[in-house]
Amino acid sequence: MHIVILAAARHPIAEPFAGGLESLTWHLVHGLRGRGVDVTVFAGEGSDPALDARMLGTSPLRLSDAARADVSMVPESWLREHHAYLQVMLHLQRRDDVDVVHNNSLHHLPVAMAGSVPSAVLTTLHTPPTPWLEPAIAIARSVPGAGLHHVAVSEHTAAAWRHVTEVDVVPNGVDVRRWTPGPGGPDLAWAGRIVPEKAPHLAIAAARAAGRRLRLAGPVGDPAYFASHVAPLLGPDAEYVGHLGTAGLAALFGSSAVTLVTPAWEEPYGLVAAESLACGTPVVAIARGGLPEVLDAATGVLVDPDPDAPDDDALVAGLAAAVGAAGLLDRGACRDRAVRECSVDRMVSEYLAHYEVLTPGLVA
């Protein structure tokens, strides 16, 4: 079986990962190759050399002075990404040795052009519907024999797309051999991209209300938000420890009492929660998106947001109150759930099952 994986081009597929999409792609490639599957990867500049990825880029992007002077000229970064996916899809039209193209990008072109390649195209939906991708899927599905297939990273995300297309579910996975149990400790942890939709400022406020020290980790995705909403809140009881790789994050989770997960949007899956569980650390999370699918009553406490609340005071109070209860949960049960429900091995097996349905007669 020969699988082509199209990665998202905006961030490199390398540790420390920019987010769950990049982590999934990296682990999927290594997991499939570990099962003996032939995998070709197209990924962005700076991706892990071990992936042996082909560059997703337009080399060179030639624009005349007249083209650049056009009033409709979009930002060059957008143009480069668009033409990178156009280039790879045109390349795949000429390939007769590919069994499945697995699209893990957020771009519309691999979906729109799926019917032009000889192999089946499986797209993983990593986000809620977007104005570029939603109509592309709808239009492509109207073409007979387009060969389009879709999975989502949670049942919540799948449900958000089912008005457009049929969607199965393959939850994300974490490598439970690298995310290992730790002894716990007195502090709380928070990890993720530091952007408004992840709302680390709520985690700081909740930890402070609970009288607990918080350590935060992750890439600063929105410098203005960090400067205005996070940095002023830092101090002896709220420390930003930087953008950590897997080993550093596992040590952070493993030495903490509870991990806070505070999305201000509908979290498509909630990989941080799964990573924390693998380290034996229970989770307090805002019950948004796919997070209720990751946690159960033995491994975390979910706090329901009040859509009618005028501010975040009630939410912060609820998170703070949940910390004590979560800290009493059994760390072994957290680890067991991660191994059973959230592992990379489970994720890879489920994707292989989808590939085999799309390529009857082939054996991975």
Automatic annotation (TrEMBL):
What is an example of a Pfam family matching this protein?
Answer: Glyco_transf_4
- What is this protein identified as? Glycosyltransferase involved in cell wall biosynthesis
Q: Which GO terms describe its molecular function?
A: glycosyltransferase activity
UniProt keywords (A-Z) are: Glycosyltransferase, Transferase
- Ranges for domain Glycosyltransferase subfamily 4-like N-terminal come to 19-178
Q: What is the organism of origin for this protein? A: Phycicoccus duodecadis
Quick check: keyword Glycosyltransferase in the entry? yes
All copies of the Glycosyl transferase family domain together span 188-308
